[in-house]
Amino acid sequence: MRLSPAITVCLLFISSMAVADNQPARQPGPDGSPYSDHPHMNAGQPDTSNPASINKTAAKIPAKPGQKKNTTTDMEQAEKALSFMREGNYAIAYCIWKPMSDADNATAQFNLGWMYHNGYGLAIDNIKARGLWQKAALQGHTEASFTLGLLLYHGDESVRPDIPAASTFFQVAAMQGHSDARNMLAYLLKQNPAQMASITSKWGTEQWKLVGKSVRIKVQKANTRSKPSVKSAVLYVLDNNTRIVAISRNKRWVQVYIPGKERLAWVFDSLIMPATNPAGLTAPDIKAE
């Protein structure tokens, strides 16, 4: 394949730099191969009941107001870059992704972030990967939000773990329909209840729906309790058709979020039924550092 003059110049520049060419072998990321050996995406990963695997293809970018859509040329260039990555020609892929990334192309930023994260022909640099993924996430790139959430959850020697920030990016991806992001939010609630308490205290119905299901009271009056037991204190008495969000289960008891109430409560499962016509979801704002 004949390379453009710009790519040729880029390759000559790279060859003059101390670019890492003996990086540890990593599983490819956005080129469609598995991520199973990826250190950050596997270390401390939830079990199969709470999967958090990464989607194996680069996500399409949802157009947002004021956001420029990918042009045909951009998509053609992206396909070329992915092809070179599959072949292991990372230097050429880099020379395609880099100018696209500099022009604020979210797909390029996401994939270039993977090159830095995995050491594809470059020295591993999670600071740069984080910055690129954040730029892509700010443009609405779902996979970038999810992947950044994983990096911030696991952390490493250069990026400290940050559960609140990770949960924010998981929320963004989950609001955009990413099922694994929802699973990660549920996992964080289960495994890090103390750290998540300050976060969930600010949640409303939309956020709780990401980790639960919308249900409603099906009897005239229903007691909700502080613990999953009839011997525990009654917290709230709910009227028929009151909509709540079921979060978790303990045998016949269901933990629920009640809109407008400060505490989560427990209700017996025979007192609730699935709700219909759930409200739409709105993604939380994310800000550049």
Question: How would you describe the overall organization of this protein?
Answer:
The chain is an alpha+beta fold and 289 residues long. The protein has two domains: 5-197, Serine Threonine Protein Phosphatase 5, Tetratricopeptide repeat, CATH 1.25.40.10; 212-274, SH3 type barrels. It has eleven helices and seven strands. Strands 6-5-4-1-7 form a five-stranded antiparallel β-sheet. A two-stranded antiparallel sheet has the order 2-3.
* Second rung of CATH, namely the architecture of the largest domain: Alpha Horseshoe
Gap between N and C termini: 40 Å
The quaternary organization reads as: single chain
Counting DSSP H or I runs of 4 or more residues, the number of helices is 11
Please report the first level of CATH classification, the CATH class of the largest domain.
Answer: Mainly Alpha
Short description:
The protein has 289 residues and is α+β, with helices and mostly antiparallel strands. The chain contains 11 helices and 7 strands. The protein is elongated.
Write the layout of secondary structure elements.
Layout: H1 5-15, H2 39-42, H3 72-86, H4 90-102, H5 106-118, H6 126-138, H7 142-154, H8 163-175, H9 179-191, H10 193-200, H11 205-209, E1 213-217, E2 221-225, E3 234-239, E4 243-250, E5 253-257, E6 265-268, E7 272-274
Antiparallel strand pairs: 1-4, 1-7, 2-3, 4-5, 5-6
Helix pairs in contact: 1-4, 3-4, 4-5, 5-6, 6-7, 7-8, 8-9
